[in-house]
Structure formats: structure tokens, C-alpha cells
Amino acid sequence: MSSPLTHFLDFTIANGLHLAGILILALLCLRLLRAAANKLVKPANSQAKTGQPAARQTGQHAGQQREAQTQAVADKVYSIGRKIIWIVAGLTALPEFGISPLPAVMIAGCSILAFSISARETLRDVYAGLQIVMEDQFVAGDTIQAGDTVGRVEQLTLRRTLVRDGRGALVSFSNGELRTVSNLSRDWSQAFVDIGVGAAMPLEKTLQALENAAAELRSDAAWSQALVDGPRVLGVQAYDHTGTTVRLQVRTVPTRQDEVCRELRRRVQMELQRQGIAVATGT
Length: 283
Fold this sequence. Notes:
Layout: H1 4-9, H2 13-39, H3 53-93, H4 102-118, H5 120-134, E1 143-146, E2 149-156, E3 160-165, E4 170-174, E5 181-183, E6 189-197, H6 203-219, H7 221-224, E7 227-240, E8 243-252, H8 257-274
Antiparallel strand pairs: 1-2, 1-5, 2-3, 3-4, 6-8, 7-8
């Protein structure tokens, strides 16, 4: 009766060549897997290098975050793929020692089937996490809006996303639950400032006063680093018997629009007071 021991004693050069071929093929697959995993990494130096200095600095930081994030995913993909390659290589080599791989294959198949059924939600979350990373939807450090939650991404894994909202609460999302996400940190941010003045105030004088305030902010070195475009006076947004509403537009480096708008309103108020222009008082 044959046994693995007797088969091992009958080990021939052909068996050795088969094992060597399996080993070489496994090493080749590992090399190809590493090359494919490296293709997933988005280098930081591939990000845009134009624009204001502050915008470039923000872009470089975001690029470093993306590189680290995609590198982590690539390492995880390679780690999982490497284990699969060695398992397949081991099962393929078993017949050379007189051991049938069929029982092990059946056990592994049943285990994978049971896992896929019981962990369906986890697999969905991991797949969604891969899409987030590979499509570069957002990275840790970005400010996003997911549903009614707006906040900074504290951590992003393949399974979940942690967001710190405006109250300071740490909100956890399963990646599979994220259907629509707004990234508020990409490229630039935009805001509008509406200024209401009395209906009796001369429009041209009002527009000139607003342009003076906007130009003063643009020329201020302390604030120009935060500006991408503007502030610019767009014109009359609304008019009725209570007054005239004039709209200004400003684009800033990501997430700095609120503080820029506050400073713009302060300068507008000072300019209107300096020129004696009354603001709208309502009905």
C-alpha cells in the first residue's frame, strides 16, 4: 500500500523539477503582484504645483496624505495576495509528495463560502473603501460632508471612516453606507457675502465702497495667502423697498472661506461707515 512516506522515498528528479517550477512560478507571481501593487500608489509629486503658495502647501500636504493612504492599501493588497499565492503553490506541490490536495481545497472552498455569507456587509464595506482610496475621493485630513454630517476625516480604513464634526463628536461611517460625499477640501473653497444697504443710498457709491474693501483685503499680505480668486463684487443680488442687496464672491484655499468672509464683512462695515452709507434696516 502506497503512503506519503513510500512516495517520498520514491521522489525522483521529475518531482524535483516540478517543485522547482512551482517555486519559480510562485516567485514570478509575487514579483508581478508587487509591481501591480506599486501601480496603486499615487506619488505626492504627481499633485499640482501651481497656484498661491498657501494653496501649493495645502496641495503638497494632501498629496502626501494620498500617497501614504494608497501605500497602505497597496501593502495590504500585496500581503493578502502573497498569502494566496503561497497557499496555492503549497496545494499544487502536495501531489509531488503523494498527498491529495482535494480535501484541503474542499475545506478552503467551504470556509470561503461560509465567510462570504456571514461577512457580506464587511465585504461590501471593504469594497467601498477600496473605491474611495483608488478613486481618490477623500483622504484623512480632508473636510467632507456625508449626509447631515460635516467634519474633518480623522481616520480612513478599508472598512470605516471616522469624521470629527463641528460639535467635536467622532462620527463613524461604514464605507458601504457612504452614498454621496462632498469633499470640501479639494482645490479651493468658495463663498458669497451679501451686503444690504438702504434703498436711498446711491448704487454706484455703494459698489465703489465694496470694491475698495475687497481691494484692501486682496492687497493685505496677511490675507492674500488664503485667497485664490477675488473678492470680487458681482453686482445687485436683490432690490426692494427695504434696500439693495449686493453680492460679493471669494475663492480661498480649502476650508478657509469662513474666516476670510468674516474679515471681508468687517472691512466692508468699516468702509460703509467711513463713507456714510447706511445699511438696510428691514421692514
